[in-house]
Design goal:
Length: 522
């Protein structure tokens, strides 16, 4: 089958009766929970993975801690060179790994590949960073003194990633953690263990041939117990968590309680504002990719569409044309994720389909309106693949203005629309939700742009202009504010969270003057 070809190319067993070990701490093992990896498009079982028990998780943390001592002693540019070699290993399997992401997560072929490319990109960035992450040399008020700020490694970084980006988000964390001198322990989402094992198998040999233990990038597949063990461990000073606001809140409390650090990347409730002066063709493309791409399962997917009254009718009629044509001439091309002509794959699991259905039902019950001709579950048989996939029709809806759904993130292709009169009003609506991840303004007015980017503008971590809410490059720090958790990953200043800063005052005189003119008379 096509699945066995992809699995074999990545050195994974193709016999689905065979249980795969889902723990790596220098050796492959696993005696904990059995995780079943299922293809969201066909329902077929791709593999059975045995994850970590609690004691195996503790052992893996200990092994990663030991490894961190070797990582931190290695010169940073040498660590950067290892990350460069990881880049080469990933690139040698970019298509195979991309296809496995499609098979296991359900996103389309080019997006599966795009995730591996995002990992490669952040490797490049991190390799450069390994020669440029600088501290500070500051003037002292005391004669013959100097002040340094030195970035030093933290130790073990725990990475808990979500199903929707099973490769890239780990890449952001692994690469930056390594070049800043840390080891990692990775707990991937329980539904994407094969992708994680394939990634780990590409990385371990690179570490080992460069004299680092494989446990410098430890892997613990598993469920809640495994996650709790990593999050609760005082040997893990930094926990980078991607997932829901509800779980993120718990992670934050537990790590805070033991005075650890977190990077939280939680829910998004991202809006696009189409201003009266926008290029509507451009806005249409931006909205479509972000609203229906990845079947609405990016943290950055567009959930809310805010239209200026003067262009609303025209924009909606152009948008709905895309949603309303039907398969196979369907312009949105819902279908098999591995078919290169497909634009929208299935939802990741049945629970997501149910959440899509209950969200829509609630909106309609409370007086909202579905604007697309079709909505609801689609039988996979329509696409000539086995009739077990989790497909739904992407929809545009107009909930009541005070509907509770405006405040929530639903991980499905549901786009909510409302009109506004002034940019100030649109910005207020953009900022009125608990979450603060991504936002976009479509405009050709430079004053509108200035307002949007400034103190009276969007309160999100990502504030785009004439670019949709999703699909960020790795250059800027990625993350959001408010209930999104305030964390930043990948580029920008994100690396500064992966270090402990040593503020060092050095006296190279033979006197002991005190700061602030304090006189201690000895
Ligand atoms: C996510 O959805 O958790 O900006 C990450 C984007 C991608 C990353 C999304 N580069 O859409």
């Amino acid at each position: 089958t096509r699945a066995s070809k992809v699995l074999a190319a990545l050195d994974l067993p193709t016999n689905t009766d065979q249980t795969i070990q889902g723990v790596f701490d220098g050796k492959w093992k696993g005696s904990g929970e059995i995780l079943i990896s299922k293809c969201p498009a066909t329902g077929e079982v791709l593999g059975k993975v045995q994850g970590a028990s609690v004691s195996e998780t503790q052992d893996a943390i200990a092994a990663s801690l030991e490894a961190s001592k070797l990582v931190r002693r290695m010169p940073a540019p040498k660590r950067g060179e290892i990350v460069r070699q990881i880049r080469e290993a990933l690139l040698s399997k970019v298509d195979e790994l991309g296809d496995l992401v499609s098979l296991e997560m359900g996103k389309i072929k080019s997006e599966g590949r795009g995730e591996v490319v995002e990992f490669v990109d952040v490797c490049d960035y991190a390799t450069g960073l390994s020669r440029s992450m600088k501290g500070n040399v500051l003037p002292s008020e005391r004669p013959e003194h100097v002040i340094y700020e030195i970035p030093n490694p933290l130790g073990v970084v725990g990475v808990l990633s979500a199903f929707n980006f099973p490769v890239a988000v780990y890449g952001w964390n692994l690469t930056i953690a390594l070049v800043t001198g840390n080891s990692t322990i990775w707990k991937p989402a329980p539904s994407t263990p094969l992708t994680a094992i394939a990634v780990a198998k590409l990385i371990q040999p690179v570490l080992e041939r460069n004299g680092l233990p494989g446990a410098a990038a430890a892997l613990v597949c598993g469920g809640v117990d495994v996650g709790k063990t990593v999050v609760g461990s005082t040997d893990v000073p930094l926990v980078s968590f991607t997932g829901s606001e509800a779980v993120g809140k718990e992670v934050g409390k537990v790590v805070n309680d033991r005075f650890g650090k977190t990077i939280l990347e939680l829910g998004g409730n991202n809006a696009v504002i189409v201003n009266e002066d926008a290029d509507l063709g451009l806005a249409l493309q931006g909205v479509l990719f972000a609203a229906v791409g990845t079947a609405g399962q990016r943290c950055t997917s567009t959930r809310r569409l805010l239209l200026h009254k003067s262009i609303s009718a025209e924009f909606l009629s152009r948008l709905l044309k895309f949603y309303d044509s039907s398969h196979p001439s369907n312009q949105l091309a819902v279908g098999d994720p591995l078919d290169p002509s497909t634009l929208i794959g299935p939802l990741h699991n049945v629970a997501a389909v149910e959440k899509y259905e209950s969200t829509l039902a609630g909106i309609v019950e409370r007086g909202g309106e579905i604007l697309t001709l079709r909505s609801g579950r689609i039988e996979g048989g329509e696409f000539g693949v086995e009739n077990k996939g989790n497909w739904v029709w992407p929809v545009v809806v107009r909930p009541k203005k005070d509907d509770e759904s405006w405040m929530e993130e639903t991980f499905a292709p549901i786009l909510k629309v409302q009109e506004f009169d002034t940019l100030e009003e649109a910005i207020a609506i953009n900022n009125s939700v608990p979450q603060g991840l991504s936002s976009s303004l479509f405009t050709s007015n430079i004053q509108a742009m200035g307002t949007w980017l400034g103190p009276d503008g969007s309160d999100c971590g990502i504030v785009n202009v004439n670019v949709g809410t999703s699909g960020a490059e790795i250059g800027a720090g990625f993350g959001g504010n408010k209930s999104t958790g305030w964390g930043r990953e990948s580029g920008g200043d994100a690396w500064k969270q992966y270090v402990r800063w040593s503020g060092a005052t050095v006296n190279y005189s033979s006197k002991m003057p005190l700061a602030q003119g304090v006189n201690f008379g000895i």
